[in-house]
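Sat 14:20. Reprocessing the chain from the morning session after the first attempt stalled halfway. Input below, unchanged.
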Amino acid sequence: MHNFYKPVACKIAFSIFSSLFLLHAPISYAAAEPIPIASFFKESQFSDARLSPDGKNIAMIMKGVNDRMVLAILEVGKLRPEIIANYEDKDVRTFHWINNDRLVYDLTDLQYKEAQRFFGHGLYAVNKDRSKRLRLVTHEFTGRHTKVVGNELPWYTHFLDIAHGSASPDVYVIQAVEAGSDVFDLYRLNTMTGNTELVPRPGKVNTWLIDKAGVPRIAVTTENEKSIINYKDPKTNAWRTLATSTWASNDRITPVFFSPEGDLYVRANNGKDLSSLYRFDLEKNQLESEPVISLKGYDFSGQLVYNGPQKKVLGLRYEMSRPATLWFDDSIAEKQKQIDALLPDTFNSLHFPSDLKTNIALVHSYSDIAPGVWQLFDFSTGKLVRLGVSKPDIKPEQMAEKEMLNYTARDGMQIPVNLTLPKNSAGKNLPAVVLVHGGPYLRGNHWSWNPQAQFLASRGYAVIEPDYRGSVGYGTKHFRAGIKQWGLAMQDDVADAAKWAIAQGYVDPKRICIAGASYGGYATLMGLIKDPDIFRCGIEWVGVTDINLLYDIHWSDFSDEWKWFGMPVLIGDQVKDAAQLKATSPLQNTDKLTRPLLMAYGKRDHRVPIDHGTKFYKAIKEKNANVEWVEYPEEGHGFFLLKNNIDFWGRVEKFLEQNIGKGQPLAASDTAK
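Finished this time. C-alpha cells:
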C-alpha cells in the first residue's frame, strides 16, 4: 500500500464538551475594533455529521488537534468521539456510510502545503473501529489512461452512491473516460478488496442514477446536441429510451431520484414556465398528469427523504425563498414542529436513522445570520446535545439579516434580489456594493450565511445581490432571457439593481461599487465599461475578461462537450456571433474603463486561467493608473487559504474606503439592539 499520507497516532480522542469549550471560548476585542476579517473567512471547525443507518453512531468531520479536519465516530449516548481518519498533511473532505460498520471518505488539502503534488481527492474505506482501511483511488496525477499500480483507481475517479444493501461493502464510482471529460464510466467497487466491475454504458453517459435496490437504472447520454434518458428495464435487463430532447429545450426532463418502491421521479416543465417534480410512468414512458409538488414562483429543487427497511417515502426537502421540508408521515411532521418550536429562528433539517427504530434525530440548523450548528435531539427526553458549530467566531446577533425581494428591470421582467443592510444602520443613503454571482447559470440567492456579504455589511456597506436573467431556479422564461446576453440584458439587470436600490432610498447614488468573481468578475468589468455613471469602482477576482478566451485556452477544465454544445447556445458562437463577442469583451474595450479597479487571480486557476487577468491588466495598466493587481500563487478558481483571504478582503476594505467612503462598521463588541 502506498504510504504517501501518514495517519496521525490513533490514540487521540475528543471530549465533545471540552472541544466545545475551546470552540466557544470568548474572544476579547477592543470595543472600537470591527469584527476581524479572519472570523468571516476561517475554515469551518465542524462541517458535517450523519447518523449510521441503525442510528447507533454518528460520523462527523471536525477540526483536529493539528488544525486538520478529521473524521470521528461518536457512539450515541457517549461523550467521547473516536477519530477514525486523520492525517498530518491532508483534511477529510466528505464521507458516506456504506453500512452500519463501514464508511468511505476522501481528502483535500485546506492548507495547500503541497499543492503541486495533490491532484485528486482520492477515496478511502474504513470500518468504524479504524480497522480494514483501504485506499481505493489514488491522489496522484498519473496522466490520461495511465495504469495505476495495484487495485487503486486513477485520480479522476469519484464516489457516486452506495450499493444500498444492508451489509454490502460495495459502492459505485464514476470515472471520466479521460481526465476532464463529461463522459463517465460506472464501476461497482468492493471497498474490502478494491475489486471493480465495469457497468456497460449505453453511449456517452453524462449522468448515472442508482435505484434504492443498488442497481444502475438511469444513464443520461449525449449525441451531438441531443440529451437521451436511458432506462435499464428490470424485465429485460436491457437499456431502452425514456425521453429525448435537445440540449437547451424547454421540454427537457431531468431524472432526480428513485423511491424505495422503484418509482422514478423527474423534474420537468411539462409545458409550464416553472419546473415541478413529477412521477415518471415507466410502463407508459410518460409523465403522470399531475405533479407531486409545484413551488409558487420557483423551479423545483430538492431531494427525497426515505426509510430504507420499510421502503417508504417519508418526505421531500425543497427550496423556495427559504428551504423547507414537506413530511408525508404525520408522526415525523409533529417531530419537526417540536424541533422548530425549540429552534424558531433557523431552518432545521432533521435526519433520522433509516430504520426509525431509535427515537432520535440529527438536527442541522442554519439561517441567513447563523452559519450552522449540528445537534442530536432525543424525543424521549426532549434534550438537545450540541455536536459542533461550523464557525464559532461568528455571533448571529452581530450579523445582518438578508431580505429576498424583487425589482422590475427596464424591460418589465421581475428580477429576484438579495438585500443585506448593515446591522444597526438606518438602512438609508448607504454606501453599497452590488455583488454579482458567478456561474452564471445557477441560482445565486439562498437563505444561508454568506461570508462575503456579511463581511461587507459589517463594514457598513449595503449589499445588493441580483439573480439576473439567466440565473436558474425562477422558471424557463427567466433562464432563457439570459441566452447570449453576456454584457447585454444580463448586464442591464445588474445596473437596474443599483438603480432600484437608489430609488428605494437604500443607497447613496454617488457611492456604489460593483464586485464579483468568475462571471461576476466579467460583469464587474462590463459594469465599469457600460455604466460608469452608476458604478464608481469595481472589484473582480478570477473573472472572465474575454469570451473568446473561454474557447481558445485549451488547458482550462472546460470539457469539449461544453465548448461544442453548451457555450455556442448559451453564450455565443465564435463565428456566427463574432461581432457581438467582440462588442461585449472587456478585453476589447479597455479604453472605456476609466474607474478604479481591483483585480485578483489565482495562478493555479484551471476554470478561468490567469491569462484572462494578465492579458487584461497588461492592456489597461497604461491607460488607467487606478488599477490594482494581486496574484496568489497557491490559489485556483477562488481563494481558500486564510492568509490570502485576509490579504484580499483587507485590500477590498481599503479600496472601498478610498473610492466610495467608509461605512459605519459594526464593532466586535456590538450586540443586537
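Residues 396-660 form a domain with the Rossmann fold fold (CATH 3.40.50.1820).
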